[in-house]
Structure formats: C-alpha cells, structure tokens
Amino acid sequence: MYDFAYQKPTSLADAVKALGGEDAKALAGGQTFIPVLKQRLNKPSVVVDLSKLGLTGITVTGEAVTIGAMTTHATVARSVDVQRAIPGLAKLAGGIGDKEVRYRGTIGGSLANNDPSACYPSAVLALGATIKTDRRSIDADNYFQGMFTTALEPGEVIVSVTFPVPGKAAYVKFKNPASRYAMVGVFVAKGPKGVRVAITGAGQGGVFRHKAFEDALTKNWSPDALNGIVTPADGLNSDIHASAEYRAHLIGVIAKRAVVAAG
Q: pLDDT truncated to tens, each residue of the chain (263 aa)?
C-alpha cells in the first residue's frame, strides 16, 4: 500500500468534511477497497472510516424496509423482520460472498462501489428502492449509471436505503463457484411500483432492468410467461467464465427460477 492519512470521524458532518479533501476515499466494509489498496490500484491521500457514524440498523413498517448504510450483509440476512417483510432480500444478503465477507461488507459500501457482479444492486433496482445520502434521496432508476459508476457526487455519503415491501419477490443467482459473485443474478418483484426485473452479473454496464420480462410477467405472473423471450447477447459480458451468448441463455433460465421462488 501507499502511505495515507487515516481518519475515523464520529459524526456525518465530520465525515463529509473529511471526504472533501483532495483524493480522500471512504472506507465502509472494505471488501473491495482494501484489496484495491493492496494492489496499488488506488492512491488516496486520506482514508475516511465510516464505521463510527451510527449508520446501522433496520427499521421495518408495513410499507417499507429501511436499512442503514453501514449495516452488514450478515445482519440483513439474519434479521427476522427482513425475512418476514422481504424474504428475497434476506436470502440475497445471506448468499453474498462467504461468511467473512458477510460479516464485514455493508449494503452502503456495495451500492457505492456498484460492482457489475454485485447482488445488492439488483434488489435495489427491482424493488424500486430509494438511496438516501447526506444531501438528497436518489431513486433506484436514476442511481446506477454504468460499471462502477453511480449518481453519487464526490464526497457524498450514503446514509440508508429504503425498500418498498412487495407482494412477491425473489432473487436467484448462478454464482461463480470460486468468488460467489453472480455470473448471472435475477431479482424479480411485484409490488407498489409494478412488476420489475433486474439483472446483475451479465451486463457490461452493470445492473439493468429487463423490460421484455417485465411486460410478460405483468400480463401473467408465471415462469411460462417468459417462454420464447430471447435476451440479446449484445452488450453482455464475455469472459473466461462464460460467453455473452451463454449469459443470455442463463438470464432466461434464472429468471424463471426466480419467478417460481417468488411464488
């Protein structure tokens, strides 16, 4: 690693001020950021640890689930309230990485990083969640802007994420056996914002909605409704793990499984 200053503020205002410095970077769970530092792919002047800001906790009402940005994947997965309100979200959190990653990684860190194979972005997009920051609230459809790219401005800090409670929802992924990242992950939801289907792990630009699937499931919530719908391979990832054509096929297979899981 390169030399850098380390700060651990105890208030959101102090954290935002520290992040206003040149080349300052925020540290949430560190599951991506620490390896990046070790590989010398980033050279921050200041690392701002967000762990003492009190941005943890889960609040559930009859209409929404709000999760603090620094809440770990493990906490979401084992929350009885989340399991009751949005079981697909709890299951998603419980399948991220391994136990070590789940006990350190945070929902806010995952969304700020926006890895194209991360699981949480699909839940946020499919459920039509709202990302609250220290400055504003951002709708899911406006938040994700490409691979590792979001609507966050420099120094902006995610405070919490609010998910509308759906009538039906589920997440299924075809995971890489080594990394457990999604080679293809599909989150389907039928709720206050209608039928929404989000795909992660497959697109070159990161998570995206599948309009053809949404239209078909709106008419008939059944895996059979997806029969005959072909996902174009153009714009999908092709790498040592799977070709774009294979991922296009997987999207259809995994989407059907997700609809079945949602009930």
A: 678 999 999 999 999 999 998 899 999 999 888 888 888 888 899 999 999 999 999 999 999 999 999 999 999 999 999 999 999 999 999 999 999 999 999 999 999 999 999 999 999 999 999 999 999 999 999 999 999 999 999 999 999 999 999 999 999 999 998 888 899 999 999 999 999 999 999 999 999 999 999 999 999 999 999 999 999 999 999 999 999 999 999 999 999 999 999 99
How far apart (Å, rounded) are the C-alpha atoms in residues 195 and 188? Answer: 8
Q: Identify the CA nearest to 185 among candidates 232, 255, 130, 243.
A: 255
Distance between CA atoms of 218 and 196, rounded to whole angstroms? 9
Q: Taking the model in full, what pTM does it have? A: 0.95
Collect contacts of 248-253 with beta carbons under 8 A, ≥24 apart: 248/202, 250/174, 250/183, 250/184, 250/202, 251/184, 251/186, 251/199, 251/202, 251/210, 252/226, 253/174
Q: Which domains does the chain have, with CATH numbers?
A: 1-51 (3.30.43.10), 168-262 (3.30.390.50)
Q: Which residues in 96-200 belong to E strands, given as ranges?
A: 130-133, 137-139, 144-146, 149-150, 158-164, 168-175, 182-191, 194-200
Length of the chain in residues, anyone?
263
